[in-house]
Amino acid sequence: MPLHLLRPLALALGLGASLAQAETWPTTDWQQGPAPSGAAVQSFENYAFPGRDDKERKGVRTDAVVVIRDGELIYEHYAGPTNAETPHLTWSVSKSLLASVLGVAYGEGRFKLDEPVARYYPAFAGHANVHLDDLLHWASGLAWQEDYEYAPLKSSVVAMLYTRGRGDMAAFAAEHSLDAVPGKRFRYSSGDTNVLSAALRGVVGEQAYAEYPWTALFDPLGIRSAVWETDAAGTYVGSSYTYLTARDLARVGLLMQRDGRWGERQLLPADWVAFNRKPFAGYKPDAASPGEAVPGGHWWLNTQVQGAAKPWPDAPEDAFAALGHWGQALYVLPSQKLVIVRYADDRDGSYRHNDFLKLALAAFAPEVQP
Q1: In the 8-state DSSP scheme, what is residue 295?
Q2: Which among 270, 335, 325 has a CA at the least distance from the CA of 302?
């Protein structure tokens, strides 16, 4: 019986331990698998690692790519100042990492998705009808402006990260008024994520909070490179400021590729991973922004919604990702048993997820079994 059909039966019969042992898992390092080669790999590298323009900062500027297939490291390549030992800034990939940390707390029975945010973060009491799942869908209803370099004067996120909000980022977000009904409108917001990070403190308690990302997620996965900055209030900047090596970030990808399981342990509950991968019901695709992934529970999905085409037409519909500013990406492709980390310093919009994934699939996807 194929392994993907054997797993549900094995778990039902209590044979999860033997099944996990039959799979490949990283220990202190990744096990190396056969390295692909040939024209498809060269085409991938031509796209991902072209001649690098560090003076004008133009074009595709990949810093690192790590590819894991079925639990084995089959490809890695570094450029610029980055190497295998570099904890790279992940930017908004941090948001999905926070979702995984929260998922562990959810599995411990510490909170429910439909609870009000203010129960765990009293500074949000002015928005009593906003629930935790609203924040996880970026659907708080806050009048938030997620603009960066091109609109710094009106940008909520720039003010939060760099000026008047940086001392207490969650409190800064909480001071925003509502301009939509909570839970009804998607509006991408780093403020929503940092309120979630503050709520996590209330969920796990002050004493546990300082080490919780490590005790809950990083340590069980064997991640040793993680750095997570806090603001002046001691709240983890869940929106933006985690640093990991590419190999370590790939461990989170393997956890998600295997539905929250890590070896013999179900680290993330299956229903939490299902929530991460379910499209937000209130999302409406923007025809002016083709290629934009669909929001799930603080992850990004390559799924069809409301008759719109898949965001990345050449990738499987079950593909999902954690995505960050300037080209950071953790792609998870369960049907292909692939996890791909990309770190980058893109500045001009040249990079395209679909182009990268199309070439990566041609180079690294396993052969289709009869």
Answers
A1: E
A2: 335
